[in-house]
Amino acid sequence: MKQLVKIGVLCFARKTFDFNAAFDIYKKIQTDLKRISQVEWRFIPELVIEEDEAIAAALELKSKNIDAVICISGTFHLGQLILQFDRILQKPLLLWGLYELPYDGGRIRLNSVCGLNLDASNLYKSGIHNFHYKIGPNIDEDWIDAIRVIKAFTSSKIGIIGHHASGFFNIDVDEPILFKETGVLLQQYELKQVWDAEVSDIDVNKRREQIKELFDISGISDDQINKVADLTAKFAAFMDKQGLHALAVRCWPEFAAEFGISPCASMSILQSEHYILGCEGDVLGLMSMLAQKAIGGETPFLTDFSQVDFEQNYALLWHCGVAACNLWDGKCVRSLDSYFAGGKGVTADFVMKPGKVSLLRIDSVGEEFRIFLQRAEGLPMQKELKGTYLKTRFKDNIRVVLDKIITNGIAHHIALSYGNFIRPFEILAKIKKWQIVQ
User: Which fold has domain 153-437?
Assistant: First the structure.
């Protein structure tokens, strides 16, 4: 389910144009907008024509704690309205222009697009760049999805247990800059807080039976099955108790060395239940997954570009057994294995289902944030490896895609989600003034 957002809507007009026609269009727009799910709408019911009305509308919407505002240019209008409005509210804006109506007696009736142009220019030259625009009869739902991502960041409780994996300096985050750019206040926890989480025998037994139903477990011992069941219950109990929406996990080396198994299989199970868990303490990778979930990505997967075949033009997107188990292709044997970490790995092993996928990496360099975006096609393949993986082909040649990643220093973890989730992030980058690499 998409992230719930609260959006304000108002319509600017001027009585020297056909404001009555604009008002009729505005009323229809309100009816149409109410059909969009996971949005709480806050409408200013009357046209906003004068400066004091713009101020009153801004104060009204501010009291409703909205996440963003749609400003409809019903007709051409006073240029100061948008500035008076934004000075109070300071929220992301959608400037919405209307198609012109048939002429009436030789006069232009709405002049809506010119009004939008005026608003955009006034905002831009005032240093306010967090606006997007749309012209036409229908809302741009990709803009709404961009707002969902912003809301997910500011309203979600995001944590990390331990730190990033040893040597993975490229996924470290500067927490004050993270807060400045996204509104995320990262919650810090120790590994033992998960290991020591109290769970009932009933919950552990349920998880044990679940594991037997989901996987071929012939490759692991009873003790390992019990540990996976125990850890799965502990992760769920810990996240539920702490109220966490997403958790980055330092998954090695301590898990295998001290708890007795790596957390991969447990993470695979829980991610199929819509828990968001990120490998190796990768906070921005975790947030990339959370962002995809906010706009409808069911079970995002944090993957590596692990293999490229230049001759056949594909990449193997692989990770050591953490993809949500519901992403299985339904054909290969879905199993658990302990092939790494001295036999303590316990990973999920399966080929992921084919289909259209979107790749996202929210990344940072110093104080600068950027977004890596790609569309790809997941291809069928035989199960030949341990871990969870998908053979993918891109619109651009794989040499071009890999060059973009490497020459821009993009971190080696990429969030993958099935479906088309690209344009909302292009809009998000524009709102946040982040660089796009695609």
Answer: L-fucose Isomerase; Chain A, domain 2 (3.40.275)
